[in-house]
Amino acid sequence: MLYDTKNPHGGDIYAGNVRLDFSANTNPLGTPESVREAMARVLPDVHRYPDPYGRALRAAIAAAEGVPEEYILCGSGAAEVIYSFVQAAQPRRAAELAPTFAEYSLALAQTGAAVERYTLSDAADFAPDDGVLAFLREKRPDAFFLCNPNNPTGRLCDAARMEKILAVCSEMGTRLFADECFLDMTDGGESLKPFLAQYPRLFLLKAFTKSYGMAGVRLGYGLCADAALLRAMSRTVPPWNVSSLAQAAGVAALREGDFLARTRALVHEERAWLRAALAAHGFRVVPSDANYLLFRAAPGLDAVLREKGILIRNCENYAGLCPGWYRIAVRTHEENEALIRAIREV
């Protein structure tokens, strides 16, 4: 729990009257009914400790992902997995994109790692390019953190470029930490899972938070063929860090293939509508492959909308961005229309 520390993320609906939250890019369809029912079924046993090894959950993830169970390490949300990776790997020099998810550098700051950033081109709508390959060869980091699709831009790094990055990292002995938490919400994103056995220094981050609307449950996991790293990571967190409720919810969620398909269809349609509506107001909107949009408007838009009970993510604290950049989640059509109406009013 945070104590006297600013939270740089979205989703803080608890500080006042919020009727619409576009600041947290979770599933617009909410949480599957089967997941809520699974948690309800284990309530009578919450007086017992959860399975410290997450046996049923790891078996379900292995079947869904098509990887061996020994490649899987679960955590209390993706954030815990990020911090345990940094604590275990102890990179002295790390690299990341700019802008990208802030939690990588926050975790690295705890270990005193030096962080180099490859700044994505604003003029190119923050699309990843091959310049990152030369950057990696020049900086030779111990670990490279790459979010795909990137957060907050929503841009995918295509499969061919990801393979080039993986090859360069392997050549230099760099650990590639690939964050695929939003990949299941894209139309055509390709996972690096097929390369896990070949590249033990590849680590993939996944989470139930976004895809299955389980942000409050806190459940994430990593995939990696490096057993020594996974053992070291497990020693950085307390036992029973994944609750019985979370384990039951995860097993149920992995059966919800149709739910994910419906989500992708909704996101595809509503993202196009929302992008056009924002552009019609004169805002610059970055093309996105994910369930969120990055756009530029007048500084202070978030504060004005907050007065109307609507949260959007102010992105000025992202490295590589400045005041006036915002990220919004793609929600249902009714919610998206309400946001655009509020923007029109101001």
Features:
single chain; 346 residues; alpha/beta; seven-stranded mixed sheet; four-stranded antiparallel sheet; 11 helices; globular
Topology summary:
Blueprint: E1 20-21, H1 33-42, H2 55-65, E2 72-75, H3 77-89, E3 93-98, H4 103-111, E4 114-119, H5 131-139, E5 143-147, H6 159-172, E6 175-179, E7 202-207, E8 220-224, H7 227-234, H8 244-253, H9 257-280, E9 284-285, E10 292-296, H10 301-307, E11 310-311, E12 313-314, E13 325-329, H11 333-345
Parallel strand pairs: 1-11, 3-4, 3-5, 5-6, 6-7
Antiparallel strand pairs: 2-8, 7-8, 9-10, 10-13, 12-13
In short:
With 346 residues, the protein is an alpha/beta fold. It has helices at 33-42, 55-65, 77-89, 103-111, 131-139, 159-172, 227-234, 244-253, 257-280, 301-307, 333-345; strands spanning 20-21, 72-75, 93-98, 114-119, 143-147, 175-179, 202-207, 220-224, 284-285, 292-296, 310-311, 313-314, 325-329. The chain has eleven helices and 13 strands.
